[in-house]
Amino acid sequence: MKSAPVKKEKTFVSKAAGGVRDLTYPSRKRAIRLSPRAQIRPVEPGEADQALALLLADRGEEGPEMGGKTAAFRELARQEQYNLNRQMVGLYEGQMRHACLFVPQAGGTAFVFLSRPAQTEATDAELWDLAVQTLRQLCRWAFVEGSNLLQVLLEPADFVRGELCLAGGFQRLTDLIYMFGTGNELPPPRHMGSGLSWLSYDRSHHDLFKQVIKQTYRHSLDCPELEELREIEDVIRSHQAAGEFDGRYWKVLFDRDQPVGVLLLVPLRTPEAMELTYMGLCPEARGRGLGGFMLREALAGAHQCQNRILTLAVDCRNRTAYHLYSKFGFKTVLRRTVMIQSLRR
């Protein structure tokens, strides 16, 4: 037996299969109450696959298609050493209706995955509250285990999960544009004059890299909101853990004796790919064409490492950086909306 749908509070337009539909959600301002018919708890032994199927299901997938998707995620979890027991499930009248998973990362962050409520559940107060509370309980669990910044990546049109994140305490950060380049479509090089040099990373230069990274954050358009939410040491650890860290591919750019920029590359575990995890210039060095100079060095580093593909993600608000990457032949692969929740805010 379901409770009656609540009155209309908030409407989004979703391009779902079968046409465009208006979806109505309970207001985020009202009190969230857990029904006596509902239960929230960590996943139990033997339930992991059922919870994963719920977590990954979208657009009515089932049968072999869903089984293949679950198997692929399990293989990813094995390679990346995800603990699939870090799932929280929400049950209604004994039936599992929602699942959430958090995956801790280096540097105090964690990725959160959450199931997508059906449209009928999104407009039913009891079932919607169950989904919200399941997510909130998972976030508390992640914070207790040491994460201080939680992140969810969503398809931009996934309004249901987006609204669930907002109700669960997340805020929308930005959209990230994921791109890749091969270095086969480079513009003519610019003459940069003499005096430019590179210094590669080792432990004796650690403090220098910290200082330069922090300087490049000033007036940056790449997720500037994160600066006050993370310590610089956490940032460095997360960049190093993005793949197979090798200090030869982390470099500070000097203009004569002054550090003016930083380039952080990490070979990925995926064959033939390297990630540009960060590239930044100090404010006084911007507007001189040094971004293109650094990007050439990044592509050269990828080829030196026998990687033919260089991947990156750029904040959609940073149009200057996006146009630079496009100029160098980088192609857009996908776009994701970033939702965050911080223990420090």
Helix coverage percent: 25-40%
CATH architecture of the largest domain: 3-Layer(aba) Sandwich
CATH topology of the largest domain: Aminopeptidase
Give the mean pLDDT.
Answer: 86
Report on the architecture of this protein:
The protein is α+β, with helices and mostly antiparallel strands. The protein folds into two domains: 10-169, 3-Layer(aba) Sandwich (Aminopeptidase), CATH 3.40.630; 179-336, Aminopeptidase (3-Layer(aba) Sandwich). It contains nine helices and 14 strands. The chain has a twelve-stranded mixed β-sheet with strand order 3-4-5-6-7-14-8-13-12-11-10-9, sandwiched between helices. A hairpin with a 2-residue loop joins strand 1 and strand 2 (19-25). Helix 1 (48-56) packs across helix 2 (63-80).
Helices, strands, pairings?
Layout: E1 10-16, E2 19-25, E3 38-42, H1 48-56, H2 63-80, E4 87-92, E5 95-104, E6 109-114, H3 119-122, H4 125-144, E7 149-154, H5 159-167, E8 171-181, E9 196-200, H6 206-216, H7 232-240, E10 250-255, E11 258-267, E12 273-281, H8 290-304, E13 309-315, H9 319-327, E14 331-342
Helix pairs in contact: 1-2
Short description:
The chain is an alpha+beta fold.
Features:
single chain; disordered N terminus; two-stranded antiparallel ribbon; 30% helix; Aminopeptidase; 2 domains; alpha+beta; 9 helices; 345 residues; elongated; 12-stranded mixed β-sheet
